[in-house]
Design goal:
By secondary structure, this protein is of the alpha+beta class. Among the domains are: about 90 residues, Rossmann fold (3-Layer(aba) Sandwich), CATH 3.40.50; about 55 residues, Dna Ligase, domain 1 (2-Layer Sandwich). The chain is built from 14 helices and 25 strands. The protein has a five-stranded parallel β-sheet. A five-stranded antiparallel β-sheet has the order 12-15-18-24-21. A four-stranded antiparallel β-sheet has the order 6-9-7-8, sandwiched between helices. Helix 7 packs antiparallel against helix 8. It is globular. Bound molecules: adenosine monophosphate (AMP) and glycine. Adenosine monophosphate (AMP) binds next to strand 7, strand 8, strand 16 and strand 17.
C-alpha cells in the first residue's frame, strides 16, 4: 500500500513512522513534510488540493491521511472523495465541530451532551447581559479558528466584556471573532480522549494527557503542548464508560443523524468536574504531541486502522493496543511560543545504549535539511518519545534521549507526566 500523509509536524512524523514500520506500506509520501520526513519517504509540494489529488492519482497512492485541521476545515476530504480517492479525515461540514465553536456548542445542546452553560451571540449587549449573570472567571471564545488563541479566561466581568468587545468588533481575530461564545468556567482537571470513527463505528484510543503550559508545574503561557503521555491513570474504568456513553457515542450517532457522519479522529477536550465529564472543545484531528505517544502504543498495523476507517469498514477490525506506556517530551526552540528563533544545527549524540534505541525515538517537527544537515528552525522542534512497562520507565527513556540531543536555545519541561507519577505513588 502507498500512503500520503498531509502535514509536516511531529504528529505527521509519528503517523509516518508507524506506517514506515508496517510491512504492508511500500511508498510513503508527505505533503509538505519536514526536513526529517525525508528519512521516511518523499516530500511533495502542491499548490492546492486538486494539484495534490492529481499527484495521488498519478502515483496510484492508495490512502491519504490528513494530520492538521486547516486542510480539513478547507475541504480537502471533499475534493479527494469527489475524485474517487480514499482519504482519512472528516468532510468540510463535519470539520465544523472544530471550525466553529458555535456549531459545536449547538450540536452538543441538541443531543444533550454535557458542556459548559453558554450563549452564542454577535451582539455586544447580549454578551454583556449574560456576562452579568455569571460569576468570574468567565470564558469568552471566538467562533472560528484562531490558531489556539481564541479563548480568553477573564478574571473579572469587565475583562470579559472587554474581550468580547474586541472580538465582536473584529479587532482581535478578524471574521473568526465576530460571533462569540460566552460560557461558564468549569473548575476541574482536563483530559483528552481520541476516537477514530468511520462515520458509524468508533474505536477509543488510550487516554492521553497533554501539558499545555510552557513551564514546569503548569506555569507560564499556553503552547501547542510541551509534552504528553498515555495511558493516563487520571481516568478509571467508570469515568471512561461515562465519557463513552455520554459523549463519544452520542456525538458519532448525532453527526450521523444530522447527515454529516464523522469520519476521522474525534479529539474530545474534556473537563472533569467532580467525576463528571464535560466537553470543552472538539478537534477533528489528532492532538500534537498526543499523537506522538499514541502511535507507538498501537498494536494493530497503522495502515489497516486508517484504511478501514477511511473505507467505512471499522466493524471488521479489532483494534489492539500494547500494554505499555509512552511519554513524549517536546524540545522547543529558544523563542517558542513567542516568536521565531534562529535556525540551529541539531547534534544527536551517538546512541550506544541498545536499550535506549529500543525504547526511545524522536518525532521531528520544526526541522529543515540544510546542505545535508538537520537544523532546528523554530517552534516545537521535536518530541522525544520513550516507551516502557511503566510511566516512570517510559519517562526515563524519553528524558535520557532528550539529554542526547543538542541545538542552540533548546528548552523543555522537566516534569512531563508528573501528575501520573503522583497518582501512582499515592
Ligand atoms: P478550547 O480551545 O475551547 O479547548 O479552550 C482552550 C483552553 O481554555 C482549554 O484547554 C481550557 O484549559 C480552557 N477552557 C476553555 N473553556 C473552558 C471552560 N468553560 N472552563 C474552564 N476552562 C476552559
Ligand atoms: N496538544 C493539543 C492540540 O494539538 O491541540
Amino acid at each position: 500500500m502507498d500512503v500520503l500523509v498531509v502535514g509536516g509536524g511531529g504528529r505527521e512524523y509519528a503517523i509516518g513512522l508507524a506506517l514506515a514500520k508496517d510491512p504492508v506500506v511500500k511508498n510513503l509520501y508527505f505533503a509538505p513534510g519536514n526536513g526529517a520526513t525525508l528519512q521516511l519517504g518523499q516530500n511533495v509540494e502542491a499548490d492546492d488540493f486538486d494539484a495534490l489529488a492529481d499527484f495521488v492519482q498519478e502515483k496510484g497512492i492508495d490512502l491519504t491521511i490528513v494530520g492538521p485541521e486547516a486542510p480539513l476545515v478547507e475541504g480537502i476530504v471533499d475534493t479527494f472523495r469527489n475524485r474517487g480517492l480514499t482519504i482519512f479525515g472528516p468532510t468540510q461540514k463535519a470539520a465544523l465541530l472544530e471550525g466553529s465553536k458555535i456549531y459545536m456548542k449547538n450540536f452538543l445542546k441538541k443531543y444533550n451532551i454535557p458542556t459548559a452553560r453558554y450563549i452564542e451571540t454577535s451582539i455586544m449587549d447580549e454578551a454583556a447581559e449574560f456576562i452579568d449573570e455569571l460569576e468570574p472567571p468567565i470564558v469568552v471564545k471566538a467562533d472560528g479558528l484562531c490558531a489556539g488563541k481564541g479563548v480568553i479566561i477573564a478574571q473579572t466581568k469587565e475583562e470579559a466584556k472587554e474581550a468580547a468587545a474586541r472580538m465582536l468588533s473584529g479587532e482581535a481575530f478578524g471574521p473568526a471573532g465576530q460571533r462569540v461564545i460566552i460560557e461558564e468556567y468549569l473548575d476541574g482537571y482536563e483530559l483528552s480522549l481520541f476516537a477514530i470513527s468511520d462515520g458509524k463505528e468508533y474505536v477509543i484510543l488510550p487516554a492521553a494527557q497533554d501539558h499545555k503550559r510552557l513551564l514546569d508545574g503548569d506555569k507560564g503561557p499556553n503552547t501547542g503542548g510541551m509534552g504528553a503521555y498515555a495511558p493516563t491513570p487520571l481516568i478509571d474504568e467508570k469515568l471512561y464508560r461515562k465519557i463513552e456513553e455520554r459523549i463519544i457515542a452520542p456525538t458519532i450517532a448525532g453527526m450521523g443523524k444530522d447527515g454529516v457522519p464523522f469520519e476521522g479522529v474525534l479529539f474530545a477536550g474534556l473537563m472533569i468536574v467532580d467525576g463528571e465529564p464535560y466537553v470543552l472543545e472538539y478537534n477533528v484531528r489528532f492532538g500534537d504531541p498526543e499523537c506522538e505517544v499514541l502511535m507507538p502504543l498501537l498494536k494493530t498495523p497503522a495502515s489497516e486502522l486508517f484504511y478501514k476507517a477511511a473505507t467505512k469498514d471499522l466493524k471488521n477490525l479489532k483494534v489492539e493496543f500494547k500494554e505499555m506506556y509512552a511519554v513524549g517530551v517536546v524540545l522547543a526552540s529558544a523563542n517558542y511560543p513567542y516568536g521565531k528563533s534562529k535556525p540551529s544545527e541539531i547534534i544527536i549524540d551517538d546512541i550506544v545504549h541498545e536499550d535506549l534505541a529500543k525504547h526511545a525515538h524522536i518525532c521531528f517537527a520544526g526541522v529543515r535539511l540544510i546542505e545535508g544537515k538537520l537544523f532546528a528552525t523554530g517552534g516545537r522542534v521535536l518530541v522525544c518519545v520513550g516507551v516502557g512497562e511503566t510511566i516512570k520507565e517510559a519517562r526515563d527513556y524519553a528524558y535520557f534521549l532528550a539529554g542526547q540531543i543538542h541545538f542552540a536555545g533548546k528548552k523543555f519541561r522537566s516534569d512531563i507526566a508528573y501528575q501520573a507519577l503522583e497518582v501512582n505513588e499515592s
